[in-house]
Design goal:
The protein has 530 residues and is an all-alpha fold. The chain folds into 2 domains: 33-252, Up-down Bundle (Growth Hormone, Chain: A); 267-530, Growth Hormone, Chain: A (Up-down Bundle), CATH 1.20.1250.20. It is 69% helix and 2% strand. The protein has helices at 2-10, 34-59, 65-72, 78-105, 109-127, 136-150, 154-163, 167-195, 217-235, 254-267, 272-304, 308-340, 342-359, 385-397, 425-454, 460-488, 490-511, 518-529, and strands at residues 203-205, 210-212, 370-371, 410-411. The strands form 2 sheets. The protein has a two-stranded antiparallel sheet with strand order 1-2. Strands 3-4 form a two-stranded parallel sheet. Helix 2 runs antiparallel to helix 7, helix 4 packs antiparallel against helix 5 (109-127) and helix 11 (272-304) packs antiparallel against helix 12 (308-340). The chain is globular. 47% of the residues are buried.
Length: 530
């Protein structure tokens, strides 16, 4: 099934035998043979599958973490749940530069296999966190951090694809990589839903004390995908490298780095301003999307008086639709970038994101319904985001005995509910659509531009830092919006997001001419010196 998905994503991709340059693909008397070409693209497709399996392994348990945590450790609260969710991104942020450095000096098969094996072991640990008599929540925290650590191989995957494709192939390959990642995020919750039929009790394999139920079956399935991935890496994956024109190189790492270092005096160093700027733009892209994902459920519960079940179900459908929209955008930018260039698409994507959050600002006069239940006085303590979530949960679940209906509306503990206008449903749906257009375009263009800016040097370390920036954004985004939204409301939260995107656009405007391929920059330097 996974292979069929990847083939469908890759269908229509331009994979010319000579790197789309015909006779220009010669390197002395060396030309890419059909055998080399087929082997190169088989390896790239294995990287697509690696990305797909990794994203499935992440998203397949997201809906079940909280009930599983409550089951294995009664002392866990919503605040600790936040740490467990953040542990994945923290692990990935730490691991990405490490695996990137490793892939620069050793065959990439090594970090790929080791990182995947760590994820497999971590998923197995997650399935056994119920066994100890105490401290189960900390074991779950470690398991999720190790899964994130294994996911640091994203840097290796993208650096390999950057080195195994020509400039004309790279945008398409990077778009396919992101599309496979998006498909994995979409299908993960679908697989989780199917495993719910096993039930909470499930079956127990007494010999190894393994409980297979609706909470552990998904991670075991993720571990199985990891094992399949390792087998494919050993059986099918072969390392290949081509230059920007699509000409085969004799070595993956050492030869390319040697050629790079020899040519540095003539070609100049990597444009570090462009590198840092692209990292910042990528950080902003993932930051605003993390904010959007985090705020979706509490925002709709506050604004539209949805119950927890309604909010989870409807927002799940919306995020699924955004995922499908993102896949379409990933595939569309492959064609559009040939006409407009990557920089223009990145700029347009940021503008769309800006418009999306601007639309989300409250402009009307109607106020949201207030949730008054179980509030006995007007003295409301100042709370942190995690404390307010926990208090809100208690308000909604521990109602007076004479009231069996779930309390809905904007909690009175959020004082802004008394004077901030409602965000209409039409505004919210419009923002969903615009984010689904802008985010994937910015995501894939950031990776593509970054790989082209770096040029022929092995990109493991640089890709590791880019991935770490993305992980940091996913950590800071929820914290940022949690504090602002809880204490000051959507007007301040989304207004500041608009300000951040405007600053990103100004940065892109300043460095626009510098965001070019390494070889193009070299040609410009040659023209200036002549």
């Amino acid at each position: 099934m996974a292979a069929a998905i990847v083939d469908a994503v890759a269908e229509g991709q331009e994979e010319p035998l000579l790197g789309s340059h015909g006779e220009d693909s010669r390197c002395g008397d060396v030309m890419e043979t059909l055998q080399h070409y087929n082997s190169r693209w088989r390896a790239i497709r294995i990287m697509y599958l690696t990305m797909f399996f990794s994203s499935v392994g992440f998203s397949i348990i997201m809906m079940s973490i909280w009930p599983y945590l409550q089951q294995v450790d009664k002392t866990a609260d919503e605040s600790f749940l936040g740490w467990i969710i953040a542990a994945y991104s923290i692990g990935q942020m730490i691991a990405s530069p490490f695996f990137g450095i490793w892939s620069n000096y050793r065959p990439r098969r090594e970090p790929l296999v080791v990182s995947t094996a760590i994820s497999v072991a971590a998923n197995c640990l997650y399935a056994y966190v119920h066994l100890p008599a105490s401290h189960n929540k900390y074991l779950m925290l470690v398991a999720r951090a190790l899964v994130g650590f294994g996911a640091g191989n994203v840097a290796v995957v993208r650096s390999y694809i950057a080195g195994a494709t020509s400039l004309t192939e790279r945008t398409s390959a990077m778009a396919n990589t992101s599309a496979c990642q998006a498909v994995g995020f979409i299908l993960g919750p679908v697989f989780q839903t199917l495993f719910t039929f096993i039930g909470e009790k499930g079956v127990t394999w007494k010999i190894i004390q393994l409980q297979v139920n609706m909470y552990t079956a998904p991670v075991l399935f993720g571990a199985l995908l990891g094992v399949i991935n390792i087998v494919l890496i050993f059986a099918v994956f072969r390392e290949h490298c081509v230059d920007d024109m699509g000409r085969p190189q004799s070595s993956i790492n050492s030869e390319v780095e040697e050629n790079y270092e020899v040519g540095q005096d003539n070609q100049g160093n990597i444009d570090q301003v462009a590198v840092i700027s692209t990292n910042i733009l990528f950080f902003v892209t993932l930051f605003v999307f993390a904010v959007f994902e985090t705020i979706a459920t509490p925002l709709t519960m506050d604004m539209y008086s949805w119950t927890r079940k309604q909010a989870v179900f409807i927002n799940g459908l919306i995020l699924g639709a955004i995922g499908i929209e993102s896949v379409i955008v990933f595939l569309a930018v492959k064609v559009l970038s040939k006409r407009t260039g990557e920089r223009a698409i990145l700029y347009g994507g940021l503008v769309i994101i800006l418009v999306g959050f601007f639309v989300l600002l409250p402009w009307g006069k109607q106020l949201p319904n207030i949730q008054w239940e179980d509030i006995k006085n007007n003295s409301i303590p100042r709370m942190t985001f995690s404390e307010s979530l926990a208090f809100s949960w208690k308000v909604q679940t521990h109602l007076p005995s004479n009231n069996t209906v779930e309390a809905t509306g904007c909690p009175i503990i959020q004082s802004w509910c008394l004077y901030t206008p409602i965000i209409y449903l039409g505004q919210y749906i419009t923002t969903d659509f615009l984010i689904g257009l802008g985010y994937p375009a910015c995501n894939v263009m950031s990776y593509t531009l970054y790989s082209k800016i770096l040029g022929p040097k092995p990109q493991g370390v640089y890709m590791g830092w880019l991935t770490a920036c993305g992980s940091g954004a996913r950590i800071l985004g929820p914290v940022f919006v949690g504090q602002l939204y809880t204490h000051f409301g959507p007007r301040w939260a989304f207004g500041l997001i608009c300000g951040i995107v405007v600053l990103a656009l100004l940065l892109l405007e300043v460095v626009y001419k510098r965001l070019v391929a390494f070889s193009v920059r070299y040609e410009r330097l040659q023209e200036q010196s002549s």
